[in-house]
Amino acid sequence: MKPVKKIGVLTGGGDCPGLNAAIRAVVRRANSYGYEVIGIKRGWHGLIYGETEPLTNFSVSGILHVGGTIIGTSRTNPFKNEEDLQRLLANYKKFGIDALISIGGEDTLGVAYKLSEKGIPIVGIPKTIDNDLSGTDFTFGFDTAVTIVTDAIDRLHSTAESHDRIMVVEVMGRHTGWIATFGGIAGGADIILIPEVSFDIGEVCTMIKKRHERGKNFSIIVVAEGAKPKDVDKYITSSNQVDEFGHIKLGGVGNFLGTEIEKRTGYDTRVTVLGHIQRGGSPTANDRVLATRFGVAAVDLIKEGKFGRMVALQCNKIVDIDISEPVKKLKTVDPDLYEIAKVFFG
């Protein structure tokens, strides 16, 4: 394999706090080794359509604390058709890229894995606010999202208690309930509903009524967007739109819950959908540090010639694992952790 001179870096999928910290770390570490770095704009879209920009120590100065991603992102799937794939491969050669760093979640890393199988030297960095990637204890973006959810619950507590209301808080989490579980525990939620455990709306209403009987005239319910009632075998959604990876646009379970609770209990119920607020803004200190550690480690893997790998956090140590591992299965909420959360239900 020829010596590495130029590294391409991209961010794919949903934006999340910490992406700029990771980009900054990649550029600073790469420059220390004498590598040139180009940013591929808007994820895989940029490699398909030839949209890039040079990244230097100067261009990444001052971005550590900034949310989003300076090179943009998209949910583009180059394997959706053969023409896009061939364009991507042609541009990879055209730009003289010797190795790629792909920063993303399940879908972005899934594309990276397939490209690795085709012989593209590639290293993955795991990011997602959902914290659902196997092989790593945590992904950056998660800590910030949980902090935002916790703050929102704290604020909703005061108005719920003042008005004797039921507050339903819908948070992100398509397949897993990590944000709902961590944020719900930290915020003192009275009920937490997650995709891993189907819920019974009747049981939810019974818990709320029992709280009222004990003089607790308000309740906070945190529900992940992918949570399902026991008698429903599909997601509750407000739209039938799907992205390029076939994921349906979620959102609606909070309003479903709010309507059913008010109808069955007669208690005043309000719904708050946090949505993209969870993705935005400045990353927490933990996410800045984790993203930085991941970025440095990814460049080190390239220097060592270890491709087809993903950097990961295990027992607070940065390690590398096969890039196929997070693609094979999602990391669901630990049942023991959810049992701890249930201690405080009702």
UniProtKB/TrEMBL annotation:
Binding annotation for Mg(2+): 106
Residues holding ADP: 24-28, 188-190, 214, 216-218
Regulation of catalytic or functional activity: Allosterically activated by ADP and other diphosphonucleosides, and allosterically inhibited by phosphoenolpyruvate.
Residue sites binding ATP per the record: 14, 75-76
Location(s), subcellular: Cytoplasm
Residues forming the catalytic site: 130
Binding-site residues, substrate: 128-130, 165, 172-174, 225, 270, 276-279
Residues annotated for diphosphate binding in this entry: 14
Reported cofactor(s): Mg(2+)
GO CC term, one of those recorded: 6-phosphofructokinase complex
Protein's GO biological process: canonical glycolysis; fructose 1,6-bisphosphate metabolic process; fructose 6-phosphate metabolic process
Swiss-Prot/TrEMBL catalytic activity: beta-D-fructose 6-phosphate + diphosphate = beta-D-fructose 1,6-bisphosphate + phosphate + H(+); beta-D-fructose 6-phosphate + ATP = beta-D-fructose 1,6-bisphosphate + ADP + H(+)
Name of the top EC class for this enzyme: transferase
UniProt keyword annotations, A-Z: Allosteric enzyme, ATP-binding, Cytoplasm, Glycolysis, Kinase, Magnesium, Metal-binding, Nucleotide-binding, Transferase
Role summary: Catalyzes the phosphorylation of D-fructose 6-phosphate, the first committing step of glycolysis. Uses inorganic phosphate (PPi) as phosphoryl donor instead of ATP like common ATP-dependent phosphofructokinases (ATP-PFKs), which renders the reaction reversible, and can thus function both in glycolysis and gluconeogenesis. Consistently, PPi-PFK can replace the enzymes of both the forward (ATP-PFK) and reverse (fructose-bisphosphatase (FBPase)) reactions. Catalyzes the phosphorylation of D-fructose 6-phosphate to fructose 1,6-bisphosphate by ATP, the first committing step of glycolysis.
The protein's assembly and partners: Homodimer or homotetramer. Homotetramer.
Name of the featured protein: Multifunctional fusion protein
Organism: Candidatus Schekmanbacteria bacterium GWA2_38_11
Gene: pfkA
